[in-house]
Structures are given as C-alpha cells and as structure tokens.
Amino acid sequence: MVEDWDTGAYLRSLPKVFDAVRQEFGPDLPLLHDAHHRLTPMQAARLGKDLEPYDLFWLEDCTPAENQEGLRLVRSHTTTPPAIGEVFNTVHDYRTLIGEQLIDYVRSAVTHFGGVSPLKKLFDYAAQYPIKSAIHGPEDISPVGMAAAIHLDLAIHNFGIQEYAGYTELTEAVFPHAYTFTDGRRAARHLRARRLRRPGQQRARPRRR
Above 70 in pLDDT, residue 36? Predict the structure, then answer.
C-alpha cells in the first residue's frame, strides 16, 4: 500500500481543524495531537507555533525522537508542550531531552523500559525540571502492563496523564483485572484507596463522638 502524504497540506489544514474543535467545544477540553515523527524540526516548530492559539495539552512526536538536537529548534520557537518517548528504552535516550528541558512529557512504557523500577527512576530524574509522566498505553500492551503503569502513576510526584487505548473483549477475558477507567480522577481515587488498605481490611468507618 502506498500512502499519499502531503506535508504542506497537513501543516495548512491542521490549525483549521483545531480552530473548529475549539469553537465547537470551548477552551476547557484538553486537546492532544500526535504527528508520528513525520516533520522536520523546522516544520515541527512552525506547527507548534501555529497551534499555540488553541492551547494544546501536548504535541506528540512532532519530529523524529532520535534527532534530539532538533528539539532545541522546536523548543525555541513555540510554547506548545512537546511529548516524546514511545521509542525510548533507557534513561540515556532522555539525557539531552530532560537535561535541557526540551520536552514536557515522558512517553515511555513500563514494559519497554525494563519495568517499574527503571521507569520510576526516569520520572524521578524528570521531576527535577519539572517534566511530567505520560506512560505509553496502546492496545499491544496487555492489561498486566497497564496495571503496572497505573501503580507507577500513583507512586510518583510528577504524574501528568495515563494513555489508555482500551482492549477487545477477548483481551479482557484473557487478562481479567480489577481496575476500570471512567473519568480518570475517579479511577485514580479508587486505586489509591485500594492501595492504602491491607488485604482483607475493611473500609474504615468514621467514628462518632
């Protein structure tokens, strides 16, 4: 299959899309966009600048993540927050991006980064700047991996957002789990309450005085 891709048309049309969305839904709806590494640093800088009036939550993978020096150009030209890291597997992949504060969100996955402990160390490093977490959560990461991500979300101080793509009914049947997603905040409160109770411990009731 041959893909018909026109970068110029994309750069011209995307701001119009976000303008229409903002007019329809207002300023409070968080808007995120993934450019899938398609743009050069100059093109990414232009896009980020053009999208500033629409107050994006982030612009993800605006240029190839391996070209970390290119993020300096993007950062110097726009205040739209960059999010990068799906393809990174070690803290060394992030040294320039975090050390120079070239991104706002870390996008690695627990299952690709070596587990909870290595990724928590990365988030602790990012928190010094401050850069927030945004753990990668596509369908090809099982509910077990998602459970690990949620536990890590609750254990760090610089939580930003948790990606959740959802699962098919068959995947849900193969990997049964207790967590649910409703509006994000309710799910987090539910998980935090469960974590604070010991196994078999009943929910504490308020004492009457």
Answer: yes
